[in-house]
Amino acid sequence: MGKPKKQVRIDRQWCKGCGICVAFCPKGVLILDEEGIAKWAYPEKCINCFLCEMRCPDLAIELA
């Protein structure tokens, strides 16, 4: 068995809705919601590549 999958946590107060995480996600897991805030919309497709966490300029995303 492999390691358990990490959850993507998005701090809604820190996210400014720039869309960088959405653009860099290779599996299309993230979207901007109706308020323009990043949302982990398709967790089943997430491969824990950490690109969203690494690219977020506001440090609003964490994989834990």
Question: How does the SSE layout of this entry go?
Answer:
Blueprint: E1 8-10, H1 20-24, E2 30-32, E3 38-40, H2 51-55, E4 61-63
Antiparallel strand pairs: 1-4, 2-3
Descriptive keywords:
64 residues, alpha+beta, Alpha-Beta Plaits, two-stranded antiparallel ribbon, globular
Give the overall shape.
Answer: globular
Q: Nearest-angstrom radius of gyration? A: 11 Å
Indicate the mean pLDDT. Answer: 96
Helix content: 10-25%
Beta-strand percentage? 15-25%
**Helices and strands, in N-to-C order?**
EHEEHE
Distance N to C terminus: 19 Å
Low-pLDDT parts are none
Tally of helical runs: 2
Using the coordinates above, name the CATH class.
Alpha Beta
Describe the model.
This protein has a single domain (8-63), classed as 2-Layer Sandwich (Alpha-Beta Plaits), CATH 3.30.70. It contains 2 helices and 4 strands, in the order βαββαβ. The protein has helices spanning 20-24, 51-55, and strands at 8-10, 30-32, 38-40, 61-63. The longest helix has 5 residues, at 20-24. The radius of gyration is 11 Å and the shape is globular.
Short overview:
With 64 residues, the chain is an alpha+beta fold. It has helices spanning 20-24, 51-55; strands spanning 8-10, 30-32, 38-40, 61-63. The chain has a two-stranded antiparallel sheet. It has a two-stranded antiparallel ribbon with strand order 2-3.
